[in-house]
Amino acid sequence: MSGISRDSERISSAQQTLDILHEMSQLLNTQLDKETLTTCVRMIESGVNPEALAAVIQELRRENGRLQPDANAR
């Protein structure tokens, strides 16, 4: 098997994995789009603690929720 073929197979496998993760994410109503989910996966693969990442995402959503009513009042 050539290097190009292996690379292509790896890319295809990674895409399938991301597609499955995105489907699971949708079923769990995480409200993460594919791009954000990809970023989260890369961060976790780089060593970021998944629980800490989830806590940060939740805090950002809470903060965004607090800011949205202010933006609508203007």
TrEMBL record:
Keywords: Cytoplasm, Cytoskeleton. It comes from the Eukaryota. The keyword Ribosomal protein does not apply. Signal peptide: none annotated. InterPro entries: MZT1 (IPR022214). GO terms for cellular component: gamma-tubulin ring complex; interphase microtubule organizing center; mitotic spindle pole body; spindle. It holds the Pfam family MOZART1. GO terms for biological process: gamma-tubulin complex localization; microtubule nucleation by interphase microtubule organizing center; mitotic spindle assembly. It is found in: Cytoplasm, Cytoskeleton, Microtubule organizing center. Required for gamma-tubulin complex recruitment to the microtubule organizing center (MTOC). Belongs to the MOZART1 family. PANTHER family: MITOTIC-SPINDLE ORGANIZING PROTEIN 1. This is Mitotic-spindle organizing protein 1. It comes from Favolaschia claudopus. The lineage of its organism: Eukaryota, Fungi, Dikarya, Basidiomycota, Agaricomycotina.
